[in-house]
Amino acid sequence: MYSQIDANRRKTLLLIVIFVVFIIFIGWVIGRIYPEYGYSPLFFAAIISGIMTLVSYFSGDKIALSVAGANGPIEKNDNPYVYRLVENLCVTAGVPLPKIYIIPDRAMNAFATGRDPNHGSIALTQGIIDGLENEELEGVVSHELSHIKNYDSRLMTIVVVLVGAIAILSNYFLRFRWGRRGSANDRGGGQIGAILMIIGIVLIVLSPIIAELIKLAISRKREFLADASGALLTRYPEGLARALEKISANPSPLARANAATAHLYIASPFGTKAAHGFKNLFSTHPPIEERIRELRKMA
């Protein structure tokens, strides 16, 4: 369990570093193509995307819960079984009790949100509450508590800022490039300048796709990390493994599935059919079979 946690943290850090280096490189390319503007587009993109993300940072949990159609937060008398299960795991994990919501949906799914453990929320579908045994539901809740404890919502907010910066840079470059005749640097750069220009245009055009792929890769690594952390919390990896098997066997999508919040859920809200090969690059979640295999290695 500890080796899984350490490995996934290292991989996430590596992906974040690659992300930041990629943004700096894009800014450098634009600065070389348009030296009269220096690196001001890079700073402009960072500021704009940062401001836009502040709203999601402080209100993203409310937005996600509203989009999911979650009811709550519940009190102990509303659902003593779920409330006590979450409460007991919070005591074990040493985290504050999050707000607990119920999604009136027969699909089997769950998600956690909140910028830190003091502002955490957990949402469980009625389908997952009714369909799982106690140890299995404990595995799911421990997975979601691990997302809160590992500050995954905060991390993904940072990632969204980076994705937004790249999208703004790309849009800025394309609009500016085709909206002018060309600077002296464009005309007099020679062969090296022409090669740099071609490379820069290709990279900047593709940069939003590359950024999205990195974001999805980080999301998948955080799922593995939450699986391992959740297994460490319950000391029973088989509970979460069996829960994932049941979720996989119930492929029904959520009635209110949304692409903007898909990465929050324990399994894809659009259905649990695993993505393999090239399709996996565009998935918010790793294949469930792979997650089950990794969990059973910890037993």
TrEMBL record:
CDD domains: M48B_Htpx_like (cd07340). GO terms for biological process: proteolysis. Keywords: Cell membrane, Hydrolase, Membrane, Metal-binding, Metalloprotease, Protease, Transmembrane, Transmembrane helix, Zinc. Its EC number is 3.4.24.-. It is a multi-pass membrane protein. It holds the Pfam family Peptidase_M48. Zn(2+) binds at H143, H147, E223. Residues 78-298 form the Peptidase M48 domain. The active site is at E144. The chain crosses the membrane at residues 12-31, 37-58, 155-174, 194-214. It is found in: Cell membrane. Its cofactor is Zn(2+). Belongs to the peptidase M48B family. This is Protease HtpX homolog. The lineage of its organism: Bacteria, Candidatus Kueneniibacteriota.
